Every structure is written in C-alpha cells, then in structure tokens.
Amino acid sequence: MKETLRVENVTVRFGGVTAVEAVNLTIRQGQLVGFIGPNGAGKTTLMRAITGIVRPDSGRVLLEGNDITETDIHLRIRAGLALAQQIVQPLRALSLLDNVALACGSLRTRHPLRSMFVTGRVSEQQIARELLSNVGLADVVDEYPSTLPLGYLKRLEVARALALKPKLLLLDEPLAGLNQSEAESLADLISKLNEQGQTILLIEHNLREVLRVCPTLYVQDNGKPLAFGDADEVMSNPEVRRAYLGASHA
Amino acid sequence: MNYEITLITTMAISVLFALSLNFISGFCGQISLGHAAFLGAGAYTAAMLSKASVPFLLTIPAAALVAGILGGLIGLTSLRVRHDFLAITTMGVGFLFIGIIRQQDFFGGEVGISGIPSSGLGKIGFMMLCAFLAIAFAAFSWFVKRSWMGFVFQSIADNEDVTRLFGIDVSRYKLIAFVIGTSGAGIAGALYAHHYRFIAPDSFGFVESVGVLAMVIVGGIGSIWGVALAAALLSILPLLVQFIDDYKLLFYSGLLFAMMRYSPGGIAAIAQSLINRARKESA
After folding, report:
1. What is this model's ipTM?
2. Which among A204, A180, A86, A23 is positioned nearest to A217, based on CA atoms?
C-alpha cells in the first residue's frame, strides 16, 4: 500500500514542556488508524503538527512523500489534508449547505482575483447536498448551525472535511460530547467512509468505539509513541494497559 | 438650489467613503479605526496634483492608487494581527498619518492646502460625478458580495481559522479587501478635496474614522443599502443640526453604543425583522 502520511522523528515543545517527543508514524493509503492515549498524551498536539497549526521543533511531516513541515496550513489542505476539529467551528452566518459548498469550491477560491468573477454555486451546492446526505444531515441542509445540536455539528465538520476530497482525513475527537447512540452512529459513518477508500487518522477517547471500528491503533503516552499495529495486539501490550489502567493491570 | 447640490454632493462622497470601509469591515470583518487616513491620502494626492495643473479626472485614479498602495502596506500588517489588535493598529496608522501631515510643510503643515482648483465640471456636473462614483462602488460591492470572493469574505469575517482549513489563502483575500477598500477611500478623498477646495489634517483624524465606522455599524455591517442609507443620513445631520456638528465624537460614539446594545445588525437588521414580521402576519 502507498504511503500517505509519514511523521518522522517529530518533537514539539512549548517552552520547557515537551508535548510530543521523537514521534514516528506512518499511515498507508486506505488505512483507518485509531490514535489513542490518556489525557495529556500529546494527541492533539501531534495532529496540529500534521496540519501546521503548530510547527515542530524538529523532525519532518511528509504527505505522499512530499515534505510539508514548513508548508502553510492552507497549502497543506490543498496538498490533501482535511481536519474535522475537536471543538466544532461551524460558520454560523452560513447555512449547513453553504458551509459545505464553500469547502467544495476550493478550486474556485484558490485564486482570489479570479474568484471575484465567478458567481454560480449550483454545482457546489449539489455536491454539498450529497455530502450532507451521506453524513445523515439531508433534512437540515438549509438550517443554520446555531439551531442545531452538537451531534449534527460534528457531522457537519466531517462533511466539510470530506468536501475537500482529502487524501488523509484527520478526525480530532469526533465522538466527544455525543451520547452513546450518536457516537455509535458517527463511528459507523467513519467506518463506512474508510470502506469506501478514505484514509483516516482518528483521535478518540471513546475506546469502545475506537476498538469497534479501527483495525489499526497508534498509542501515545506523555508525548512519546507507545505502540502501533493491529488493534488486538496493541491492546494486549502491557505498556498500553499500564498507561490506560495503571501498573496493577499491566 | 446651491445648498441642495452641496448636500447631495456631501452625501455621495460620504456614501462612497462608508462603502469603502464596509468592503473591509463589513464584508471581510477587519475592523479599521483609521480609515480616514486613506481618505486623507487620496485628498492630499488629488489636491497636490490639481495644484500642479494635473487635470481633475486624472487625480481620481492617482488618489485611488496612492491610497490603495498605502492600504496594501497597512494590509500587510493586518495579515499578522486580527480583531481588536487590527483595530488598534489601524488607529495607530490614522494618528501616524495626521502626525506626518502636520509636521511637513510639503503637505501644507497645520494649515493644510487651500485654493484647490475646481473640478471644472460645474456644481451640478461634479455632484453627478460624485453620485455616479458612489453608485458605481455600491454596484461593484454588490457584484463582489455575490461572487465567490464575497463568499470567502463572509467566511473570513465569521472565522479566519476555519477558512484556512478550506485551503483558502486568507492573507491574500484580506490584503485584497484592504487594497480595494482603501482605494475606494482614496477616490472619496479626491472628491472631498475638490468639493471643499480646502483640506487640513483635522479633516482626516480619529473623529472622522469613528464617524465612518458609525455609518457602517448604524447601517448594518456588510449591508450595502443599509450602509449607504446611514452614510447619507449621518453625513448631512451635522450640516442640519449645529449641536451634532459641535459634539460629533460624542454623537457618533453614543450612536455606536446604542446600535451595538440594541440592534447590532443596524438599520438593515431592523428592516429585515420588520419584513419578516409582516410576512408572518400576512401568511
């Protein structure tokens, strides 16, 4: 399988605190990798280093073999990354349809001056409608985010990220804040997307759902890589059990 | 009749000036507290060129160019700061502009520039030109608002970080908004200089920047017709009511406060809610 993402020896420090230390991680095309770890493991920091929100102090990030370590966020997105954020950030002045349509129009918005002379949105709205339908939001496409509950907005985040047709979809705790039935339903959707060929890196605390849908796990603790591989093998690793359940369960 | 022509000309220049700020603050969400500096840059450019016998109609694009270049430079700083920091930066630019103009004899210093030649179009012709340019800028704003550029501006105004996650080069869009908005202010400045035929640093100070921001907020930030209406009304109020002219800053600040407290969407939002209510009642 072709290599989609490679994180090479990445270290991120905030002042005197090392949030991520010498992390290596490779994700191949078509994989769904669950990224887990206790609180403070540096999961979100590593995700941010991949998207460019924080710059690593050392190491490299490669997307399909291209070094994107020093690349601006918008250029990483154009190169094939998409992020659904942990704290939902819908564009509140736009309907759900337009939230996704704007992401669908990434070719139209690439050149600012050209974007001034293009007005039609029908084709992008059509694609947006399909994407919203795929994530189970077909009935609320014309609603505004302020009127909808968190579960809907989490799905909107996923639809917006998918609109970018990413090579790698990064999902940062998409199940957080959802009740069990909502979490199950969204986890099923993530699994379905992966079955359709979407490569996904899923950060998640909901271990039950991660173990249900992710065939591969990457575990990090205290900013350091702990284990990577088949989900069952990783979860039987004493180091992982110790990190999660304490020394007595290792 | 002369009085009415003066009022309409003043209104048209103010509408153009307010719409130019609306392009930056209303469309793109970049709050500027120093927009009068760009009005001043255009006014000084046009006045000095006119005094050097450059034809009036050529001074307009020259004023737009100078104000636009200045705006581009300031816009570059806006790429690094945002929200309230941008407001403070632009306010600083406004004070810097006044400080430089006041100290330089080249710009007429404290006494400004007087004896600016007339436009040569006659009072009615000049009024028509001002009205045409205000309407043209409003039409241009409407065109941009409907385009994908307007769509992106709306997104930037809502959330810059999310917009970046769509692969959009937010910095370039913000810069373009700044250049277009400040060029518009430069054109308004050229008209201002030839309308009053006298300019001085005080005409482009902080009070004017707050005044034009009040026009945008009262009209409804981002609304073209709302801002045009508010600018038309607020620009002639000081001419009609002496008290308002004497206490401009107090009046504009009070108005800003009242709007932000009771109707943050301005006249446009009030009108929209009235229309919605009427529709509900008739349904």
Report:
1. 0.88
2. A204
- Measure the CA–CA gap between A96 and A89, rounded to whole angstroms: 12
> Which residues from chain B sit within 8 angstroms of residue A121, using beta carbons?
148, 151
- Residue found under tokens 């930056």: B24
Strand A168-172: give its sheet, edge to edge: A81-84, A168-172, A199-203, A32-36, A216-221, A224-230
Please indicate whether, in this complex, the C-beta atoms of A74 and B170 are within 8 angstroms of each other: yes
pTM of the model: 0.89
Q: What is the pLDDT of residues B103-145, one digit of tens each?
A: 988 888 888 999 999 998 999 999 999 999 999 999 999 999 9
Å between B248 CA and nearest CA of chain A: 33
CB half-sphere exposure, A212, CA atoms < 13 A: 16
Contact in structure between A37 and A23 (CB atoms under 8 Å): no
The distance of A241 to chain B (nearest Cα, Å) reads 35
Burial class (CB in 10 A: 0-12, 13-18, 19+), B92: middle
A122, A153 contact by CB (below 8 A) = no
Residue A95 CA to chain centroid, in angstroms? 23
Scanning the structure block, which residue is given the tokens 């605190």? A17
pLDDT (tens digit per residue) in B200-217:
999 999 989 999 999 999
Assigned token pair, A133: 């339908």
Q: Are strands A168-172 and A216-221 parallel, antiparallel or unpaired?
A: unpaired
Q: How many CA atoms lie within 13 A of A101 on its CB side?
A: 19
What single-letter DSSP state applies at residue B82? -
